[in-house]
Prior knowledge:
By secondary structure, the protein is an all-alpha fold. Helices cover about 55% and strands about 0% of the residues. It is built from four helices and no strands.
Amino acid sequence: LVGTADYYPEMMATIAEQQLSACVPEQEIRAAADTLEAAKRPVMVIGGGVKAGKAEQAVLRLAEVSGMPV
Length: 70
């Protein structure tokens, strides 16, 4: 066991209902892309936040383009 996390499904529903927009600085996106490019065997570990954030299509597209297993 590496660690534990609390999970509150009722909170996820509230978050999903909110209209959130995130602005990630370009340098952070570039750093993440560089890290993925340097990885020998990258893999995507997807959780409930993808569904709550309605990002399923974006994650699917990233998986298709990158070839990373999900």
